[in-house]
Structure formats: C-alpha cells, structure tokens
Amino acid sequence: MAQTSRASKNQIYKAKGKYPSMTKGATQTDEMEHGSKGKKMKKIEKVMHEFKEGTLKSSSGKKVKSRKQGIAIAMSEAGMSKKKK
Asked: To pair with 52 at 20 to 30 A between CA atoms, which of 3, 17, 33, 68?
C-alpha cells in the first residue's frame, strides 16, 4: 500500500496538538517548574524550622508568633502561592 496520500500518525498528532510540547499554554518554564518542586519544599521546611525555633522574623524585624504568618512567609520565600480556603 502506498502511503503517499495518507498522513503519518506523527503529522496527525502534531496537527491536532496531541504532543505535550504542542499543547496550548505548555512552555519550557512549566516543564522546568515540575523539577524544582523539591527545592521549594526544602525552602518551606527550612523557614518553618526557623519558625518553630522562634528565630523567624518578619520584614519589620519582629519575631513571627502566628503559625499562619509563618506559613505565609515560607510560601512567599519559596515562590509558591498560598492555599485558598
């Protein structure tokens, strides 16, 4: 059978956008962020450890006493968004 008139599967998938790199909104930065999740989690662990020891300070220089404020600082430093209610 001659396949000159038929499109190959790869051409069809590319045209329909079924490959991950071809999907809308997918960029290299999205793919790189998946690998940095461990780094973000380690940063959160480090900041929360400071909070538990009592050495975590806010931008004004005062010690952080609220657990919620400690979590907010940790998420901010790690570059992650805070969970919504």
From this structure: 33
Query: What 3-state DSSP class applies to 57?
Result: strand
- Separation of alpha carbons 64 and 50, rounded Å: 10
Q: How many residues does the chain have?
A: 85
Return all residues near 15 (Cβ < 8 A) that are at least 6 apart: 7
Place of tokens 């051409």: 11
pLDDT at 1: 52
What residue type is 47 in one-letter code?
V
Neighbours of 24 (CB within 10 A): 5
